[in-house]
Amino acid sequence: EAGVAQSPRYKIIEKRQSVAFWCNPISGHATLYWYQQILGQGPKLLIQFQNNGVVDDSQLPKDRFSAERLKGVDSTLKIQPAKLEDSAVYLCASSPRLGTGDTEAFFGQGTRLTVV
Amino acid sequence: AQKITQTQPGMFVQEKEAVTLDCTYDTSDQSYGLFWYKQPSSGEMIFLIYQGSYDEQNATEGRYSLNFQKARKSANLVISASQLGDSAMYFCAMRGNQGGKLIFGQGTELSVKP
To answer: Of A30, B61, B66, B84, which sees the most CB atoms within 10 A?
Structure first.
């Protein structure tokens, strides 16, 4: 079974530029998450999708971050314009279904973003 | 609100010895799940072990076991017979039954010495 795929692995941009990250979850997984992990911290949830609908985006900085999951499969996370504090690893994860406590999330290898 | 607390920023253990990584949690959900993930330097989050809030027995997966004390709201990870490859960041996480949100603690960096 193929895992969660993310691209690119690394990205360096200047502040105020825009950037996009792509995620393809495990086939058949209904739930998709984007996390931001700043160096030395635990992952923080940015947005959670169930199929192509948003379940939770309470911690997404909507003035500069946007995400979509068209057709309920792969997803794109965009930052425009980027700030220095956006430097982090962006992790995508997927789960087979929403909600019940016993469902672990499967993670991709992440995209390491450096804003200079 | 749900919260996970890991109070050990870094831990050292001698190879072949056992080590316990601490995790406490807070939730008002009656049903929830607790998870431990390993994050090596490559960055990928690797699922290790799961404990359900209604499970009466502590979970075990090979060299990993979860010491679950519900009344104390703790879910410590025990790694037996540590190996050099166990050196990594370890994250405790929790999912309640309110929308499936998976939240993480700050992590513990484990270093295994030869």
So the answer is: B66
Q: Do A103 and B97 touch (CB under 8 A)?
A: no
For chain B, say whether A51 makes contact (Cβ under 8 Å): no
- The model's pLDDT over A34-79, given as tens digits with 9 standing for 90+, comes to 999 999 899 999 999 988 899 889 999 999 999 999 888 999 999 9
Q: Nearest CA to A47 among A57, A38, A37?
A: A57
B-interface mutation test, from A11, A59, A100, most B Cβ less than 10 A away = A100
Chain B: give the shortest CA distance to residue A98, in Å.
5
Distance (Å, whole) CA B69 – CA B56: 10
